[in-house]
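Our example pasted here:


***
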Amino acid sequence: MQKRLFVYNEHYQFAKDLDRFDYAYDPQRVLLRNHALHSGDQSLYLKYLSVQYPEHIIAGIQDLEYLTQRLICLDRAQARKWMTAKRVEVLESDISIFDQDAILKAVDPYEQVVSISTDKPTESLIYNQMAAEDILALRDIFWIDPRVG
C-alpha cells in the first residue's frame, strides 16, 4: 500500500496540496478505498474520510458497505459472460486499469470516452476507461463493481 501511495503521489502530487482534489477525484481516497475493499481493513479509509471529507463520511461508508457485500471476483470466462449478459462495451477502473486489483465498473454509453489502447500507458492513474474486449486480454481475474451505469 505504501509503495502504491508513493507512486500515485509522484504522479498526482496530492501530498503537497490535499485540497487540490475533490472527493470524487481524490487519488489518495480512491487508493485507500480500493485497499479497504481488498484487505477488509477499513480503518485507514474511514480515518481519511473523517479528516479530509467529513461531509462525505456517511456516503463513503454506505458505498464501502455496499461494495463489501456485492463486489464480485470473476475469472476471464465468467467476466466475458457477465459483460455479454449486461451488454457492457466499456469498463472504467478505480485505480490504474493495468493494476490487477483495479475494481472495474461498467460505463454508461453516454459517459464513455474514447477507449485507450493497451499498448500505450495512460496519463491518468485513476478512472481509466477501456473497451471490455481489450481489458479481457489484460488479466485473468476481474474485480467487478456490479453497478452498471
